[in-house]
Design goal:
236 residues; globular; Thrombin, subunit H; 2 domains; 6 helices
Length: 236
């Protein structure tokens, strides 16, 4: 795999708008991005650069590709080692979600995410050793969040939420490994969720990722139910 600081991402989509935005966001963060437009190009890239690729982001509706079969083809080449994210808008029903889970994909990402949300949505998969994803998809979500560190309380807005943590949009992120107490309220809920968390990644251009380290069991269940429901809704 590539070094810890500079990662290599393959973006497979036949829409220039999607490819170019993801490529620009990844390269702006100092990483390498390869773009491909077809299933044949994608499989050739994986075959040629398998040991150097850190993440594949794929459109399941590439020309001449057969949906989940495309991921199966990647798995035949990589032996299950590559993290694969699927563009959520290319999912065709809950049955594909189940099949993809069986193939061990890392999660889903919205191909039309705002540019400033792209890196935070990819970071947990690019730096898995620093972010406990709990094998959870992440959903784009902009809700208020407060976090306390030491005697300071700050307010911000989330970028996305997963079972094991969240990304927060802020121009003043905390340093990596800083511990903080976060409080937020899920949409349509009447109670706050509190969690002890640790900063898993920090980037002053986009924000920071918070990994939950201690959270009430009922709150954890509520977060998981919300994330799973949103994930399935976007897949249908």
């Amino acid at each position: 795999m590539a070094g810890a600081e500079h990662k290599t991402v393959v973006i497979a989509d036949d829409t220039p708008f999607v490819r170019d935005r993801f490529k620009a966001a990844i390269e702006h963060a100092g990483h390498r991005a390869y773009t491909v437009r077809s299933a044949a190009e994608l499989l050739a890239r994986v075959r040629a650069d398998l040991t150097d690729i850190d993440l594949v982001v794929v459109d399941l509706r590439l020309p001449h590709a057969g949906g989940v079969d495309l991921v199966r083809s990647i798995r035949r080449l990589d032996g299950g080692r590559l993290p694969i994210l699927v563009f959520s808008g290319t999912i065709n029903g809950a049955s594909e979600v189940r099949d993809l889970a069986g193939l061990g994909i890392a999660g889903y990402v919205n191909e039309y995410s705002a540019s400033q949300q792209i890196l935070p949505s990819l970071a947990p998969h690019l730096f898995p050793d620093n972010f406990n994803r709990r094998h959870s998809p992440r959903v784009a979500l902009g809700i208020p969040v407060a976090y306390r560190y030491g005697n300071t309380i700050a307010a911000a807005v989330t970028l996305n939420l997963g079972r094991g943590g969240m990304a927060i949009r802020t121009m003043s992120p905390l340093d990596s490994s800083t511990r903080a107490r976060v409080r937020f309220r899920l949409p349509n809920s009447k109670r706050d969720v509190d969690a002890d968390a640790r900063v898993a990644w920090s980037d002053r251009r986009v924000g920071m990722g918070m990994q939950f380290e201690r959270i009430d069991a009922a709150d954890q269940a509520a977060v998981e139910e919300f994330v799973d429901a949103q994930h399935l809704q976007h897949a249908n």
